[in-house]
User: Fold this.
Amino acid sequence: MRGESRRTAALASVLLFVLLVAGCTTPSAPPVSPSASGTAITPPPPFTVTTTEVPTSYDPAGAQTGADAIVALNVFQRLLIVHSGSPEPKPDAGDCLFKQPTVYECTLLKGLVFSNGHALTASDVKFSIERAYRLNIAGTSIKLFDSLQRVEVVDDLTVRFYLSWADNQFGVALATPAASIVDEDSYDPDKARPNSVKPIGSGPFALDNVAEDSLTFIRNYTYQGATRAGIDTIRLAFAADSATVEQAMAAGTTQVVWRSLDAAALGRLASGTTRTTMTEIAMPDARVQRLLWNPASELRGRAEVRAAVAAALEPDRTLTSLVPPTVAGSTASFPAGGRPTATPVPGSRLNLTPAYSSRAPGPAHLARLLRDRPEGNAGVSVQLKPDASDADLVLTDAGAWANTALGWLQAYTDAPLPGSAAKLAGLTQTARTLADTAARQAVLAEIQQQAAADATVLPVSLTGETLFVGADVKVVGDTFGPCWQLGLWGFTR
Assistant:
């Protein structure tokens, strides 16, 4: 707690927030008003975004998926922000610069407040980063902070980061979900916040209502930053599958569809078989399918098994790098296409279990290839496990937290083979230190070559992302976060 001055400031901010809400926002459940004829007028339905992607954590320190990022990026602020169009960070809650090669300083905007009325200060920034670092939840962007040595509060508006080495990616790290600023007085420093308790942030939206099939966001009128909301109330509706999404589009009960449509549904929409007034917005090369070996799998430690699986899948893979070719630093290091070159695994026939998400569009087809090719070419028995957490391999299209080569390589560098760990740590640090582009690209290429040799993560395919919007919906500005993570602030009517 930060004393009487903090409480006084918080009280003033609460009063301001109440006045703003009372004067500017639409209640999440407005009362029904009578018309001049005495007939009740039903309020219009909320602006609805439909997806099959369901967040698993509303705590930004626990954000592990693109769906988790929806809450993190829209409800919370970070010092900096990045969009899908560029990897360069821009100011959001503050402005930052290197004071020295290993000293990074940020100055907060004046008058920032959380949705509960508490003032947002440099102390909250320090608390948030240190909390995420302490929780250290696997699969989150906190791994990008491995250069951080300590955080210092200079004054209420100034926070200073001391780094162990000159890290040219530190600004990018501050734009990721793990760097989201939470209220020091409301969040447990040692535990992730349960989803049963509403998150408290200072972003363009506040989470107003949580239901089994949806989340409702309302515009935060106290927000100051780079991504101001264009709609007062947005309902994020969760559909069970692609067919349910397609039905909503045909019925006109949704204004936006994000992801969620399989190839068959897209074909029916393109041919006019499924009729809708919604139009598709092109997002080429936005979805990367990858196959990850589970570090807990006993088979992962056997080089001949990893090599056999990788070779068996070569004819069907269309992506040759863990880094999408559209990202600077991508190097073709994995062979793809042609005839299978797998050598059957010697000894007794192995049982291999790949997992995939049953709700994500597309993976079911790819998963069948993961079953058929290794069985036919590598001499193993394969059993598909939808939505399993204990499988040997996992097919995923989870994006990177930062749209940089190192961001896309994180799935590999976070869980290296024991024999590659020291080498990868050194190469990664070197890549983040080098200012010379050519030298950095050479180091990135070496990391990707090592990734191909280890074959613990396999690139599979690169496809477009799906986004459909209604006839009265406009998409403005940078609608998406890094790697096409959904930003609700970019929709307007």
Notes: The chain is about 25% helix and 20% strand. The longest strand covers residues 283-293.
